[in-house]
Design a protein that fits this description.
Layout lengths: L12 H8 L2 H5 L3 H17 L5 H19 L12 H13 L1 H5 L6 H37 L4 E6 L2 E7 H26 L1 E2 L15 H7 L4 E2 L3 H6 L3 H28 L6 E2 L18 H13 L2 H9 L13 H25 L1 E2 L14 H10 L4 H14 L21 H13 L3 H12 L1
Parallel strand pairs: 3-4
Antiparallel strand pairs: 1-2, 5-6
Helix pairs in contact: 3-4, 3-7, 3-9, 4-5, 7-8, 7-11, 7-14, 7-17, 8-11, 8-17, 11-12, 11-13, 11-14, 12-14, 13-14, 15-16
Amino acid sequence: MKLWQKENTVTSEKIERFTVGRDREMDIHLAEFDVLGNIAHATMLETIGLLTADDLAALKTELKAIYQQIQAGEFVIEEGIEDVHSQVELLLTRKLGDTGKKIHSGRSRNDQVLVDMKLYTRARLFEVVQATEKLFDVLSRKSEEHRNDLLPGYTHLQIAMPSSFGLWFGAYAEGLIDDIIQLNAAYRLANRNPLGSGAGYGSSFPLNRQLTTDLLGFEGMHHNVVYAQMSRGRTEQAALSAIASLAATVSRLAMDVCLYNSQNFGFIVLPDDLTTGSSIMPHKKNPDVAELLRAKTNRMKALPMEVTMVLSNLPSGYHRDMQLLKEILMPAFDEILDCLDIAAFMLEHMKVKQNLLDDPKYDLLFSVERVNELVLAGVPFRDAYKQVGAEIGDGSYTAPRELKHSHEGSIGNLQTEQIRARMEREIAAFGYDEVLETLSKLIR
């Protein structure tokens, strides 16, 4: 029997197959969080008299046993069981009889799946944060290693001013901090407790929602029970928007690698074992890893819009449409984590070419340096600008190749330590160590 099924009612097998969809496949990922939510809920039920102390002890013993099965990869959702919530309750009832049936008091499947999704999203977002930090570390380290290796800077894809690999790597490192900030915004939306909102209208039982909030390590609760249900979809959209932002950063980096690796630019070298060949051209070393990174991350930019379309025109309250959000959100976490790992691996092994700007074709990169020379000699900037333009026009221009950039964030002052310190502060703001410590107490 389903959690929602009444006596003497049967749902068409065809309808059941359609409505369950991929839920059993997706719900495996929610299993550990469903157990944590059950332990917190049962603990709360005992404090308000809906479970005895013996009931709670028995339930916690069995729930911890299920948790161990999940961690060992032995947990399955059996054939004919429509979701993880039903499977866990079934296991409890098999072992404990009526005690297992009591655990659903004061709860709806709506707030049960919602708390699972909040816990799942919170945990996966921090996985993304950790993977982003690893990519950041590679970029930051490479920035320092190549601080003196100059690189042409471009605007409008025209050579503009001298840059450096130190600046290039460092720019993407700092860009990841903004992505971390967006991940934190999504994390905070996931970090609120909906448990106790029931089907969206609360319960006549004297539930202690603050207790489950504390037990599950949430920052706070969704106070209004209607809004608790309305937060479903909004949380997923925020998470996917943060992932899309991060994907955009990686996509742009991948595009630069494709461009800089080409013979026409020739700024970097990808080792042979990071490239693929051509079936007809023996000279080819294709940057497929960067191209696929670009494609995968570009595709992720569309994910927030998928959620938007699923949620379009929905009134308040719960709707089964929201079930489909799992199919958008869950694979996205795996995809972005894979892309972050490959991006870090690619950059770690990528080689940069030195002395690029010694080539006379880059002489014009130093035109601003020539203008600044004249300004320092007392020539008004506008006159200096015109003079250098005339020198370039009549062929008398000579590139002054000595660079004197010293201000914050320039070639000669990358501010790497300041960027690292800012990243550390933003990651510390998640407070995830405290969350893990709180959750560990539930399963000890």
